[in-house]
Design goal:
Blueprint (H helix, E strand, L loop, with lengths): L3 E3 L2 E3 L1 H7 L8 H25 L6 H12 L7 H10 L9 E10 L5 H20 L4 H8 L10 E6 L5 H7 L12 E3 L2 E11 L6 H30 L3 E2 L13
Antiparallel strand pairs: 1-2, 1-7, 3-4, 3-6, 5-6
């Protein structure tokens, strides 16, 4: 993407490449587009600063001054916040939790021999615990490589995202009191897992999330207003080499 011009400003290729580091994306093309987009927006805002007579030594300060002066969104009303909450209660739930315990037989991911040995040992432990579930704490203390062995293998309360995906699959699908029927293999080794209790999340009351709702609505409104403001500036500018109208919603850097 070369030859971008915004009014009298030319955005060079090396400037786009330098800017890419601030726009992480799934691939280099997407990062390049995001960097170019922001540089076009920045050029529009700097030209607007000049038109308004804003004199700042630093370009970033000039851009910020323009935004603060011309993009102003009132805070959402209480009625708007409550209406959003009522229509989106699923967004405002406490996380599902499980209380669980495990026995970890450590094995490095690239040590096939040790992993096979750990898997066989875990299978033996599962067989033993199926016959004598009351021995879980004893066996955790004797065999687990996790510090939880000092607590009979108990992990406490675990929510989604607290563990690796392989473990999470078992934690949130086993029934209360159920032992994993097969060894659970993760990057840390092989686990014997038991779920003791499910603690379903609950909808949080409006009063507990009112601030979060207000912040979300204000941010969403500001982004829409900023996008409209940029499109207004672009409509009055001479831009070549980049289609700002086709770009995604801009993000202020």
């Amino acid at each position: 993407m070369t030859g971008i011009r915004v009014n009298d400003r030319c955005i060079e290729e090396d400037e786009i490449l330098r800017e890419m580091q601030y726009h992480p994306a799934g691939d280099a093309g997407a990062a390049r587009d995001a960097a170019a987009q922001w540089l076009v927006i920045r050029a529009l805002l700097l030209d607007r600063a000049r038109a308004l007579g804003i004199d700042e030594e630093d370009d970033a300060d000039a851009v910020q001054t323009v935004i603060e002066r011309e993009v102003d969104i009132p805070a959402p009303t209480e009625a708007e916040c409550r209406r959003y909450y009522d229509n989106n209660k699923e967004r405002f739930r406490s996380p599902d939790l499980v209380e669980a315990a495990h026995i970890l037989l450590s094995a490095a991911p690239d040590d096939e021999a040790r992993r096979a040995e750990a898997e066989a040992q875990a299978g033996e432990l599962i067989d033993t615990l199926t016959r004598a579930p009351e021995r879980f704490g004893e066996l955790a203390r004797a065999h687990s490589a996790c510090d939880s062995r000092h607590e009979d293998g108990r992990l406490g309360q675990v929510s989604r995202g607290d563990t690796v995906p392989e473990m999470e699959t078992f934690l949130f699908n086993l029934e209360e009191g159920q032992l994993s029927p097969v060894p659970v293999k993760t990057r840390y080794g092989v686990h014997v897992v038991r779920v003791d209790k499910h603690l379903p999340g609950r909808t949080l009351p409006y009063e507990a999330v009112a601030g979060r709702v207000a912040d979300y609505l204000k941010d969403a409104s500001w982004r829409r207003a900023f996008q409209q403001y940029v499109q207004l500036l672009a409509g009055e500018a001479r831009i070549s080499g980049f289609d700002i109208a086709a770009a995604d919603s801009p993000l202020v850097q």
